[in-house]
Amino acid sequence: MTGDSGASNAGGSSRPLRPARAPARSKLRNGTWIIPGTGERTRRQFTLRYPYFDGSGDDDGMRPLSDGETAKEKALNVLHNTRVAAKGLWAWANSPKGRGTIKCSIAYLLASMGTFWHPAASFLGPMDGKHIVATISVYFHPARSAGSQIEAVAIAVVAVCYAMFIGTLSMATSVLFGSNLDMVELSYVLVLVIFIGGGLGFVGWVKQKLNNPLVSVGASIASIGIITIVTKENSVHTGVFTNQKIIQSLKILLMATTIVTLVNLLIWPVSARLALRKSMRNASTSIGEMLSMIASGFLSGAEEDLSSSAFTKASSTYNSTLSQMNKNARESKYEYYLLGKEQVYRHDKAVVKSMEKLAQSIGGLRSAANTQFELLKEVSNGPLTANSIASPTTNVFSPFFGRALSTTLKSGSNRLNALGAIDEALNEHSDQEDEPTPMLESPTPLLSPLGASLRTPSDIFELFIARLGPSMKSLVHTMAEMLKEPPFGDPGSPVKINEHFKHSLGDAISLYNQARGNALEELYKTIELGRHRSETVQADFEEVAAACGHFSFSLLSFADEMQIYLDTLDDLRDATEQNKRSWKWLMVWKHIKLPSRTKGEDPEQLSLIQPIRRMRQSKLPQGIPDTMKNRHGTVGWDTAPHGESIWDHIVRATSRSLLKFFRFLARDDIRFGLKVGIGAALYAMFAFIPQTRPIYAHWRGEWGLLSFMIVCSMTVGAANATGLSRFTGTVMGAAFVLVNWWISDGNAIALAILGWAVAFGAFYIMVDRGNPAFGRFILLSYNVSSLYAYSLTQQVDDDDDDEGGINPIISTIAFHRVIAVSVGIIWGLIVCRLIWPMPARQKFKEGLAVLYLQMGLIWKRGPLAILLRNNTAATSYMKMGEQAAMQRYATQLQTLRVSANNEYELRGPFPFESYGRIMASTQRALDAFHAMSLVTQKHGRLSPGEKALLYYTAEERSQLCARICHVFQVLASSVMLEYPLTDAIPSVMIVRDKLLGKIFRFRKEHVVENNGEVHLAETATENNRVPSPPAINGNTSTGDAATTTATTARKLGDVTVEEPDYALLYAYALVTGQLAKELKVVEKEIEKLFGRLDEDALLLQ
């Protein structure tokens, strides 16, 4: 019938083609749904759409003064604007960021009393450096949760103690070699190499390895202490051991941490446990909103629902909430452990992980919905008659018979917008019982001639939604209502989970499963009624039906994850009710694990991306993995012939040992620590050379060395960004010093008030605007000039006559600090650029290439082959944690992309936007990986018909997996080397179409109809023998190639093959189609970046 329709259209070519009338639809009938709170069944009306409001009205905004015509109207506008500004200021002051800013400014004011208030200054002793109290209050400000404050205090204590330890050892070394042994030059060399180079290098290594913001500021505190004691004080230079500076440093630490902690806990205290529960509630609501909008978009066939501002807002809200939730979970750990509630923390963390899995399922559900949208797009593109597709010359078994999805969907597609939207009445009310409404204008039974009226694949969507749409909508509404009512209360309060939730969800899934099974069964039977269609059109119908089944299955997978989520909530409730306390974390010896050797794995099982536990140590992707580097370094010895002499054995063993040692030194973190140590030692040597020490002291070289430690970053881009912020903040801080000193004339009270004003602005930048480095640098520059200058007026023990002594010259002090900081910044940039440079561009390219290699290796395992190898239990082709590891790795690559954008090279700026589009396609490919993982993991045992199909198509699936792996490797090589692609990249779609052709051939040659059932015929070869697939065991190679190499079906006897048995293969084809599309997008972007080579290119020169 499709062919007849196409012929008639072709015959009327003189008339313009008009879109066929979209099928008339009334409002989608309501299905039976479960009220989550009560568990009762109802048919009341509801909608999946969420209302969104744009904001407040115009009366709440500012009014231009020019609007008033008279003086009275202008005065009223001024009064109105004043009220609006006051209301906004009050709202900000009561917001978390506003309160945090106020708390920080109060803590800074109190910390500055260590300089301005005489009793506090006397407690710290007669030496200078009392402004460090305010500096520590800036670094470890109180705008944080109690758990983060516990962590901050612990890090500050460790940092100061480490600085005191290095300072003590350096003085002891100076006394031993300089005074006792009279080897002053040797003592200087030892101090420079060991305590400056080694001590500060270790600080840099820890800063990079842990990559924690609090650890970074702790590294700065430790650097201040080491630099001050070793390079500024005279004890090390004169070979005299004194503990005055050490005692003062401990007093400074005690005063600063006490002030900051008291302000944190007494003024608007913030609990990380409470913040975690709040972020859980927000995440739950966002997931519910995204679920409703994705389902609504699928039911209406409108892709605009997933690109609307509402969905974008819900998605961005969840992404921001996810990072905040993980942050709160980490900080709440310290509160829970301190209170002895370790079990509650573990269950809180389990709930967070369960929410992340729900979000991953949302990604898989969106990927399945996008499949429908792609099909509908291709239906609405250019008219192609079914007559042309069904021509006798069409060879559907050829791997080049055209792209099965796009070509066949265009058959009979002389219609636009073929899938009419399911209209949800705007006046639906949840409190009204639904009257019987017609589902369609003609609710004809599926086994009637309706099956013959299916002219285009889009009719399959309409038919599927008509049958399963109400049940799908009901299940989504039930789960969304549960997610909109998160049970998380305040910490310590009971977790109030509605006891009907689990039962309601079970009933809703049961209803949905029943309706889904019936809908799919009747849908496939309807397709069977159209066997008179051409092969390609019939295959289209089956593929579109598989797309419907794929989305319905993804929704069922989300429901399964919802059940697990409710189970974790039950565990959390039980742990909260038990209220047991334990402090097992104090048993440190039980947490020490000895390293164990792991056996070698198959190369295809190679994990290029380290597990999440390793990746948490650093947010910087490693790039090329150690396994590949080690193989590259030992390939020469592995292939060389083994000598028999002792000398050959010694050379081989020594070479391997030296190679292992140098490879250890070549690690990124080790090289960074060495680079920091070398740069610090070269800079600090001017403090030990007699001819240059006066210059170092006059220009305050210690602040330049500190600036070097702050600016020196892992990548060049990060160093550039930090250096610019450091310089700008220092200049602004010096300007504030000059203005405040001129206003106050050195008065302590005035300086304290003006300093509080500067601190308020700086902390506003840090806390409210989210730029902590810039605001911190402003205050550090202000401290080191203003507070330091006032301390000089109090006659501290310091040789500062060159800056005015008790009558400080504030302009000279500020100028010296700006010059010192500028020199330190320049030196840091030079070291980062010249000594083992690590450009963020290079790290990003290496990381992206490794991610592509890993994805290719994972796909080569064969997503469906795993079902044949492990038929006894449901399993996935991805190892535990691999999906989360790749997802986190991709997120870290985005951070590197931002750093690379700050690098300046002569060859031009970094292509930030192009790589952004590449990363977006990579993210969608990861969603496709997860969707396929859900299909295999939740599928269960294979039916005999599915086994027959998998064995029959094993060779094509093996080729398809190898082709996808090959394309991933080609793209990885091009990205890594920045080489242009050739115009001969193998096409994934050709192999995919070959797989579809093999399925069509199975239908034609191996299937016979018998009373509505389909049986596998025992088709024999010429000698009446059918080869069986090879045995599958642990010794066979992984991937689909391990299942069979034969092109004939396995001799399984009389095997029943039902229509749903084809759904698994078609779902696999759909996911590979999405994957092929994203690979093509990446290929085009790489072509724009690096070009493309054709056969006429001349490369030999």
Instruction: List low-pLDDT spans.
Output: 1-28, 52-58, 382-452, 597-606, 610-618, 1007-1053
**Record field, number of beta strands:** 6
Proportion of strand residues: under 5%
- What is the spatial order of strands in the main beta sheet? 1-2
Q: Output mean pLDDT.
A: 76
- Which class do the helix and strand fractions yield? mainly alpha
Structure description:
With 1101 residues, the protein is mainly α. The protein is 65% helix and 1% strand. It contains 36 helices and six strands. The strands form three sheets. Strands 1-2 form a two-stranded antiparallel sheet. A two-stranded parallel ribbon has the order 3-6. A hairpin with a 2-residue loop joins strand 4 (1007-1010) and strand 5. The protein is globular.
Describe the structure in brief.
65% of the residues lie in helices and 1% in strands. The protein has 36 helices and 6 strands.
Helix-strand layout with pairing:
Layout: H1 2-11, E1 33-34, E2 41-42, H2 71-93, H3 96-116, H4 118-124, H5 132-139, H6 146-180, H7 184-210, H8 213-232, H9 235-238, H10 244-266, H11 272-300, H12 309-339, H13 342-380, H14 386-389, H15 404-409, H16 457-484, H17 501-528, H18 535-578, H19 612-615, H20 626-639, H21 646-665, H22 668-684, H23 693-698, H24 701-711, H25 716-744, H26 748-768, H27 772-793, H28 810-834, H29 840-860, H30 865-869, H31 882-900, H32 912-939, H33 944-952, H34 954-977, E3 981-982, H35 988-1006, E4 1007-1010, E5 1013-1016, H36 1061-1090, E6 1092-1093
Parallel strand pairs: 3-6
Antiparallel strand pairs: 1-2, 4-5
Helix pairs in contact: 3-4, 3-5, 3-10, 3-26, 5-10, 5-27, 6-7, 6-8, 6-10, 6-12, 7-8, 7-22, 8-24, 11-12, 11-13, 11-16, 12-13, 13-18, 13-32, 16-17, 16-18, 17-18, 18-32, 18-36, 20-21, 22-24, 22-28, 24-28, 25-26, 25-27, 25-28, 26-27, 27-28, 29-31, 29-34, 31-32, 32-36, 33-36, 34-35, 34-36, ...
